[in-house]
Amino acid sequence: MSDVLPPGQPDLASIVVGIERTNELLQRVLAEVATTPSTHAIFVDAGYVYAAAGRLVAGTEDRRAFELDAEGLIEAFIDKARTIFPDSRLLRVYWFDGARRRIHTPEQQSIAELPDVKVRLGNLNANNQQKGVDSLIRSDLESLARHRAIGDAVLIGGDEDLVSAVEAAQGYGARVHLWGIEALDGRNQAEPLLWEVDSQRTFDLDFCKPYVSRRATGYEPNGETAPCGPAPSRDEVRFVGAQIAAQWLSSRGRETLAELLPGHPYLPGSIDQELLIDAEGLLRLSLRAHADLRRALRDGFWEHLQAQY
């Protein structure tokens, strides 16, 4: 019998050699993966931190009325992450904040100079409201997860708009851990965000107190007094929602607002943002850190709208 293989017939010995080479390569890859430490990053919505920590410790969300030791607080977040992820290394801390024309303030410059910290700026409008911060968080979180640069992401924030960022990161295999600051009453983080994340952690007054201190004066250089009053009740905010709905019906017409009814209880993003801006103007208070009050606002808006049809 001839040992010559028919034309096109693979050589068994070469197949065995190929399999052995493949196995060797796989073993090298697995060994490298096993010795490569996992990595985590911390994503901080500064607007949420200032508002929540300020209200908890100083009784106000207005940044003019208190000082935040951002360097100390960031180091505390890093230390806490080390204890929770002992076998993981920190990639960096991302500090998301707003600034007019995206020009760093002196405080933001000092934060940007901290080691392992990256400051990312959205815009700040005339009402001192952040614009574009949530999209920056989503972009960085999704990009790092997609490129397998992180295995765990700590998200410190509370806005419902961050749900899409969490979903995107989880879609690439990253685990997202939501950290928040204790609220005096109710919650300051949106429930859909709490439902979506892999774990939750809340920092109490004792944790935050060393990093927040009231300013010696409640006045700005221009002579304006920093508002320090308590947050309005849910009923007050619900009334404001109904008030805005009535104004919109008068100015925009019934047919325009009737188109919103099939989407109840959800509002299109642009409409929801307009509602929030109008309400904050009437209340003279940011609702960013008050998820419960934002829900009350929408409830009042819908209740008035539905009563008209």
Question: Can you give me a brief rundown of this structure?
Answer:
By secondary structure, the chain is of the alpha/beta class. The chain contains twelve helices and nine strands. The strands form two sheets. The chain has a seven-stranded mixed sheet, with helices on both faces.
Largest sheet report: 7 strands, mixed
For the record, give the distance between the C-alpha atoms at the N and C termini, rounded to a whole number: 93 Å
Estimated share of beta-strand residues: 15-25%
Strand order within the widest sheet?
Answer: 5-4-3-1-6-7-8
Tell me the structural class: alpha/beta
| Strand and helix order | HEHEHEHEEHEHEHEHEHHHH
The total beta strand count reads 9
Mean pLDDT: 82
Helix content percent band: 40-55%
Structure report:
The chain is globular and about 85 Å long. Residues about 220-230 have low confidence and may be disordered. The protein starts with 11 loop residues before the first helix and ends with a helix. The chain has about 300 residues and is of the alpha/beta class. The longest helix has 24 residues, at about 10-35. The chain has a seven-stranded mixed β-sheet, sandwiched between helices. A two-stranded antiparallel sheet has the order 2-9. It has helices spanning about 10-35, 45-60, 70-85, 105-110, 135-145, 165-170, 190-195, 205-210, 235-250, 255-260, 270-285, 290-305; strands at about 40-45, 65-70, 90-100, 115-125, 130, 150-155, 175-180, 200-205, 210-215. The protein has twelve helices and nine strands.
